[in-house]
Amino acid sequence: MKNLIIPPKLNEGDTVAFISISGGRAGDEDMILRYMLGKRRFEKIFNVKVVETPNALRGSKYLYEHPEKRAEDLMWALKDDSIKGIICNQGGDDSYRVLPYIDPQVIHDHPKVFMGFSDIATWLAVFAYAGVRAYYGPTVLTPLAQPGKLDAYTEAAIRRTLFSNEVIGEIKPAEKNTPIDWTTTYTVKEGSKEVQYERFLDNDKIDDPKDIIPWTPGTGYKVLQGSGRVRGHVIAVCGGPLWQIMGTKYFPGPDIWEDSIIVLEHGSIYGSKLAGLHELRAFAAAGVFDKAKAVITGPMDEDNEETIIKVICKEVHRPDMVILENVDCIHRTPMTILPAGAWMEIDCDVPRIEILESGVS
After folding, report:
1. CA–CA separation, 10 vs 323, rounded Å?
2. 112 domain residue, yes or no
3. How many domains does the chain have?
4. Cβ neighbours of residue 48 under 8 Å, at least 6 residues apart?
5. Is the pLDDT of residue 270 over 80?
6. pLDDT at 59
7. Cis amide prior to 138 (ω within 30 degrees)
8. What does the pLDDT read at residue 2?
């Protein structure tokens, strides 16, 4: 893999832009107060100033109909020297529609922190094409604006990866996790009554101690296949979005996949085990797994474990490839951050994950 330009670290007092490069829910009437909570939290916890890109809050309908405006927002945020980082408001499912309107040279010439997950995997591929590191990690609507308060694991990941140029080091599994919660109210028992409260209010608070989130104890990493230690550079793959850009110049080439550790968000698409199998086979046919060192995933049920073993072990003939699951980099809370191109070591015998370099310069 070619060496990627590593963006400068974020500092207190910096200006950070929030962008709707994929989905536009942040600007919808039923989501705007959640967005504002995420903005307040990020500003107060990390002592930065947040600005919205010009079209970030135009809403889902407008941004779906105008992918060129999403591209304009990215170019605007990159070219504005006062903006030091860009964080996506959410993922989505149609970033591929924005690609005809962007100039990769602008990304190359203005390297900045750019972070998101899900459909934002498309943009990590675009940034890699432009020669710049981007970051697979939290978005504004989740987990930054999760109900209750920002969890300590996600906050620490942001500080360690984006605000420090020290070596990231070990990424420990989260001690607890919870599904993404999109509900707007919660209920508290007060005496003999159950009282319902609104979760997202137009005020200056950044947490609500009464809004207790149900957490599940973490179970740690699980080695599905492989042994010993492996090293490789990180490349994030969220199956559906990357599948959409196969055949374009932005789909990662063989040099990206060679010696890589693939961060794979994979599952039975819309509940279909067969669709999940077809997704993995599409990547296998594209040579994604041929020379990779390892795959890390979130938690998988037995069907998904069976599917990934079938493709990688029996069809790609890579029984040697390490597959590590239950990593905190998927559609749940909390989330770690994985910098594209960073060197990672996996020790299957512990099991343990370590990033061997800093996330930023």
Report:
1. 33
2. yes
3. 2
4. 10, 12, 13, 14, 15, 16, 42
5. no
6. 98
7. no
8. 80
233 shares a domain with 118: no
Asked if 171 and 355 count as a contact pair (C-beta separation under 8 A), the reply is yes
Question: Looking at this protein, which amino acid is placed at residue 89?
Answer: N
Contact of 230 with 293, CB cutoff 8 Å: yes
Range of the structural domain that residue 274 is part of: 222-355
* CATH number of domain containing 319: 3.50.30.60
CA-closest candidate to residue 75, choices 48, 95, 104, 49: 104
Assigned domain for 249 exists? yes
Distance between CA atoms of residues 226 and 295, nearest Å: 10
The answer on 230 and 107 residing in a single domain is no
Assess contact for 39 and 51: CB atoms under 8 A: no
pTM (whole model) above 0.85: yes
Regarding whether 257 and 127 lie in a shared domain, the answer is: no
- Report yes or no on 148 lying in a domain: yes
Angle at 296 between CA 294 and CA 302, to 5 degrees: 115
Residues constituting the chain: 361
One domain, residues 237 and 332: yes
For the stretch 72-123, pLDDT in tens is 999 999 999 999 999 999 999 999 999 999 999 999 999 999 999 999 999 9
Q: Is residue 148 located within the same domain as residue 257?
A: no
* Assigned token pair, 172: 């420990």
Per DSSP, the three-state class of 304 is helix
Q: What does the pLDDT look like over 174-226, one tens digit per residue?
A: 999 999 999 999 999 888 999 999 999 999 999 999 999 999 999 999 999 99
Q: Mark whether 128 and 260 lie in a shared domain.
A: no
215 in any annotated domain: no
Asked whether the beta carbons of 288 and 237 are under 8 A apart, the reply is yes
Contact 19, 74 (CB under 8 A): yes
Domain boundary among 125, 145, 166: 166
